[in-house]
Specification:
Shape: globular
Strand content: 25-35%
CATH class: Mainly Beta
Number of helices: 2
Mean pLDDT: 82
CATH architecture: Beta Barrel
CATH topology: OB fold (Dihydrolipoamide Acetyltransferase, E2P)
Radius of gyration: 15 Å
Helix content: 25-40%
Length: 109
């Protein structure tokens, strides 16, 4: 029974990030705009981001977890931590593609 639950949990978690592009590195700039919170990233993805050499991404003001994501991004930026961002790969290439989730690495890991 426990094995079945563990397998189902792994399938659910794995599928929740299927269809995403993830990039990991340090943030170079963070700033708010009228419609989004924008970050520029040290890692590039020219396949989806068309501005700043493929390094600009954004968190939409309408994102259901906007406050939590922005707080996490700001804390990571000021602590100089690496951030992994997840961007839906179904988006058309854009100047600042929308970030779905973020993950911050603890120092030394």
């Amino acid at each position: 029974m426990r094995t079945t639950i563990a397998v189902l949990t792994l399938l659910f978690v794995g599928s929740s990030y299927a269809g995403t592009i993830n990039l990991e590195g340090h943030l170079t700039y963070v700033y708010p705009t009228e419609t989004a919170f924008v970050i520029t990233y040290e890692t590039e993805s020219n396949a989806i981001s068309t501005c700043n050499g493929g390094k600009r991404f954004s968190i939409a003001l309408s994102h259901p977890n906007y406050d939590a994501l922005v707080s996490t991004v700001l804390a990571a930026h000021f602590a100089d931590r690496e951030v992994r961002i997840y961007v839906e790969d179904t988006q058309s290439p854009a100047c600042a593609p929308l970030i779905r989730d973020v993950l911050v690495r603890r120092a030394g890991t």
